[in-house]
Amino acid sequence: MNLYKGIVTTCFTLCLSQVNAQQNAAVSNSEQEGGKTAELVMAKIKNDIVQNTKFGGYIIGKASASDRDLSSSNKSHTNFDLRLVRLYVDGKVMDFQYKLQMEVNGVGGTSTEKGPRIVDAWAEWQRFGFAKIKFGQFKRAFTFENPMNPWDVGFGAYSQLIDKLAGMNDRVGEHASNGRDLGIQVQGDFLPSGHDRHNLLHYQVGVYNGQGINHADANNSKDIIGGISVLPVKNLAIGVFGWSGDYTKNGVTVDRNRMACGLKYDGKWNVRAEYAVSEGHKVSDYSTDENGNTVVSGSDKADAWYIGVGAPVTEKLKVYAKWDVYRDTKSWSSQKSIYALSANYYFCKNLKLQANYSYTCDKTTVADGHYNTFDMQLYVRF
Length: 382
Fold this sequence. Notes:
Layout: H1 2-52, E1 54-66, E2 78-93, E3 96-103, E4 117-125, E5 132-139, H2 150-153, H3 160-165, E6 180-193, E7 198-208, E8 223-230, E9 236-249, E10 252-266, E11 270-279, E12 286-288, E13 294-296, E14 301-312, E15 317-327, E16 335-348, E17 351-362, E18 370-381
Antiparallel strand pairs: 1-2, 1-18, 2-3, 3-4, 4-5, 5-6, 6-7, 7-8, 8-9, 9-10, 10-11, 11-14, 12-13, 14-15, 15-16, 16-17, 17-18
């Protein structure tokens, strides 16, 4: 009996030792495989950074002349200017697209805040085409024209709608923000349709600080901005956009509620038309009287629209025409209209010469509100 117990005990011990050895080997193999996986991931990240990172920039130089009566000021009728000088780095690592862009021209100072500064600093997770998530500082999801690069606008400047109602030089009194803000956004495309299988719907919705670029939030609320577009055929988009939020400066908070609608077609021909309406006072509308009471003046309404068409003349030459209107109080007496013509000649992909002519009719000024402007702009990209 004792012999039997001894044999059983010995067999059990041997089996247990074998199981432990197998478990240890499995753990060791798992650790090795985990280490190899981590090494592969790191190698892929390094390869993506090396292969997909791009450094570049562009310069837009400008020479302009105007016949506006400037007898009441010391301003010249002619001017040479660096409209934009930007440097950027962008790329893609695994499922993440990223971009850092700096504007390095302009005059600094607290009054203009137009000195060298960061304009883009974002990363976007692009694993799923129907739900891309972007975080950082980037273009607001409002209107078709605002997200466009200056190279692609076709004119010497963005429309007044974008300038005043999309956060370029916003009417509320926000510092120049190039149509950008800090926040998080979800965008996507879905419902492939047609013979070319283009996506029928595109959407964007974001939550932003509401204070413009390089500024922390200054109140207890966030701006919500979004839009949805239908693409019945390839290159044609018809969309609506909304913006609900507010802006705070010098202790004054103003509403910023806006709606926009429009269409965009980009092909050999280009067509863009948009209308936007805004509700909310400017910061400058608020003042304090001699009794310490807050006084509000001005109008809390504004609107704007533009219609632009681009037509090819040759492979290298394209001409554009635009009717551009902004009404600061949503009334005809506050209307500023610009009628513009532009010719874009591409010497090559990264070198373009642009000639612009505009006639301005501005009802809001006591100075000369009817004048002509001509400018030449040279676009260089590297």
